[in-house]
Write a structure and sequence with these properties.
The structure is a single chain. Strands 1-2-5-11-12-13-14-17 form an 8-stranded parallel barrel. It is built from 20 helices and 25 strands. The chain is α/β, with parallel strands linked by helices and 629 residues long. A hairpin with a 7-residue loop joins strand 19 and strand 20. The chain binds alpha-D-glucopyranose (2 copies). One alpha-D-glucopyranose is lined by residues 140-141, 143, 247, 283-284, 325, 389-390.
């Protein structure tokens, strides 16, 4: 294309922008447009610049931004100028919770009634598992979306969602919803039209007439759900074509090679923003671009696409944050995280290496991994979690494993045996997820409590062991509540819910062991001695301490090498006062560990003071503030 950026900008002003001059808020919009347009143009050129109709497509993108901004202004559903998402300030006060609407509260309306419970926990942002329309039967837990704009009747209506958002806003709670951008369900209107032979919509997906075409991609691809089916393609009888389906065969991958898909998905994204969503969770972003001869994960174009979405959001509704759910190699995860792409990211590496340390009682892999990967650029934050609705995969870097003296392949095998309870002496009761008979790969399902030993100990062990399991749970919580980033609690785990095996009786769930940790949950028992209450009370106390400690704001993190293979340590420095610091010591073994510090220090959790020698009990965690109290 032979135009300069200036020429293109001029054309966009004349053909699009100037038509919107009379709209309220236009001048601010225009300023943001001028700021972000060059970046947006570069990204869109990279993706679609070869097309002869590129400038028309670009006009369409800009026109969509203008009209979406206009709509957001009129409806007052969202005022971009005033939007402040607390999370972006990196505050220690932020604590998240994630849950399935039906399992936690019945319907959307029911969540309002559970706000006091969330308040009691100190929760300030929530991620509702998918709430939009899905086919009946198999839905991949809601991730097979049939309409991005209709709430599934099982949960309520759009009106209920808007009411809920108002209720959340009144209580200072931000909302995360999924932006499922890699695929739609095969029942989505676009897929239905494609099946009826509509070429426009067939171009929304990756369709192939011939087996030989898919054979050019297949050898390089990983099987995500190998227990369910082999390969990444599904033959559709009606169309007599193969469809690209990375996940389940009823989840059709969208084709972002087609700019119409990009523009349509922009509209779906703005629909969520218009409803009042504060943070969009980019579901499985790694897969959204494909190229022959590659694994079709984390391709550079994936980042270009997300950056384009971000520029569009910065222009139209600044303040809306993106959360990356790229559960991939740590070198790849970090590429998604920047203020130009996703400000927030899940931290699967911390999650996986915490479980690794719990199994081995050794912290070397955790320490090496965090030394290399814990720091993030300014304005970006980890979402730290121990469990979520998905499985646990051992996504640590082989390099860090070798460095920690571990053979990565063998070690992953050991971890799988440990967490499925096969390893002699294991405390864990997890289930295998998606065992790949060819590669030997396997991931783990199970609740926090069952994986940490509580299920086993409640049945066959003594009160002493039950206590140990509870201490393991609080140890993990103690780390995610003090590491840099925002903790995200998976509802049910706050009260020590054990695995629930009844999913096996439900034909829609029986094949997917992740349902063992997706269950109806209520409050912990009132009885102070019940394990659920003990976990809940200790957890809420930790959360309160986190919120009161300034060093837990911001992003500072310094990983320590304590010369003790069982104790993980790190420091957090107050960004406003660098003299104020908290050092965290976490003992991953059952035994007593001794650490020498230059005191005096005060443990915020036990409220003990220490001068030099610290004896950490088995599974104890300390949050040490300099000075004594
Ligand atoms: C994400 C979801 C997972 C789902 C997959 C496909 O990874 O967390 O539950 O199966 O995407 O949408
Ligand atoms: C794969 C994907 C991840 C997804 C998970 C679901 O690991 O990379 O995005 O959450 O499968 O099991």
């Amino acid at each position: 294309m032979n135009f300069t950026t200036e020429e293109i900008l001029k054309r966009m002003k004349e053909n699009v922008l100037n038509h919107h001059m009379d709209n309220e808020g236009y001048s601010d919009f225009r300023n943001r447009f001028l700021k972000y347009f060059p970046g947006l143009l570069t990204n869109l050129m990279d993706l679609y610049g070869e097309r002869t109709d590129f400038l028309y497509q670009l006009e369409d993108v800009i026109e969509t931004c203008c009209s979406m901004f206009h709509e957001l202004q009129i409806t007052q559903k969202q005022n971009p100028e005033e939007k402040t998402v607390g999370l972006s300030t990196g505050s220690r006060k932020e604590v998240g919770a994630v849950f399935y609407v039906d399992l936690f509260a019945g319907k959307l309306k029911g969540i309002q009634k559970r706000i006091p419970y969330l308040n009691e926990l100190g929760v300030t942002f929530i991620h509702l598992m998918p709430i939009f329309k899905t086919p009946s039967g198999l839905t991949d837990g809601g991730y097979a979306v049939s309409s991005y704009r209709e709430v599934d009747t099982r949960f309520g209506t759009m009106h209920d969602l808007k009411e809920l958002i108002q209720g959340l806003n009144r209580n200072g709670i931000n909302l995360i919803l999924d932006f499922v951008l890699n695929h739609t369900s095969d029942q989505h209107e676009w897929a239905v039209k494609a099946k009826q032979g509509d070429i426009q919509y067939q171009n929304y997906y990756y369709l192939f007439d011939d087996q030989s075409e898919i054979d050019e991609y297949a050898p390089f691809l990983r099987d995500i759900f190998p227990e369910v089916r082999k390969g990444n393609f599904t033959f559709n009888e009606l169309m007599q074509k193969w469809v690209w389906t990375t996940f389940n065969s009823y989840q059709w991958d969208l084709n972002y090679n087609n700019p119409a898909v990009f523009i349509q998905m922009m509209k779906e994204m703005f629909f969520l923003v218009g409803a009042g969503v504060d943070i969009l969770r980019f579901d499985a972003p790694a897969f959204i671009w494909k190229r022959k001869g590659t694994g079709c994960e984390n391709l550079p174009e994936v980042h270009t696409l997300i950056r384009a979405f971000k520029s569009i959001m910065n222009i139209t509704a600044p303040g809306v944050l993106f959360l990356s759910e790229a559960i991939v190699h740590p070198d790849e995860i970090e590429k998604y995280i920047s203020v130009d792409e996703c400000e927030l990211s899940y931290n699967p590496l911390l999650m996986a290496t915490l479980w690794e340390s719990l199994a081995t009682r050794k912290v070397s892999l955790l320490q090496k991994s965090m030394e290399r990967y814990a720091s993030l650029p300014e304005g970006c934050y980890w979402i730290n979690y121990i469990r979520c609705h998905d499985d646990i995969g051992w996504t640590f870097s082989d390099h860090n494993a070798w460095d920690a003296g571990l053979d990565p392949g063998g070690h992953r095998k050991f971890l799988n045996e440990f967490y499925t309870g096969k390893f002699n002496g294991s405390f864990a009761k997890g289930l295998p997820f998606q065992e790949n008979m060819q590669t030997g790969d396997l991931r783990i399902s199970g609740t926090l409590a069952s994986l940490a030993g509580l299920e086993k100990d409640l049945t066959v062990e003594t009160e002493l062991e039950v206590n140990i399991a509870i201490n393991r749970i609080l140890l993990l919580y103690g780390v995610i509540l003090s590491m840099n980033g925002f903790p995200l609690l998976y509802m049910g785990d706050e009260a020590g819910y054990l695995n629930n095996y009844s999913y096996m009786d439900n034909p829609d769930h029986a094949e997917d062991s992740r349902w063992v940790h997706r269950q109806t949950t209520t409050c912990p028992k009132k009885n102070k001695n019940h394990y659920s209450r003990r976990i809940f009370d200790r957890l809420t106390k930790l959360i309160q301490i986190r919120k009161s400690c300034r060093s837990f704001s911001g992003n500072s993190i310094q990983i320590k090498n304590l010369q003790n293979s069982h104790v993980f340590g790190f420091s957090r420095i107050n960004m406003d006062n660098s003299d104020e610091k908290v050092t965290v010591l976490a003992n991953f073994s059952e035994g007593l560990q001794v650490i020498n510090v230059s005191g005096p220090v005060h443990d915020l959790i036990s409220e003990n003071n220490y001068n030099s020698r610290i004896e950490l009990k088995g599974y104890q965690i300390l949050w040490l503030k300099d000075g004594s109290n």
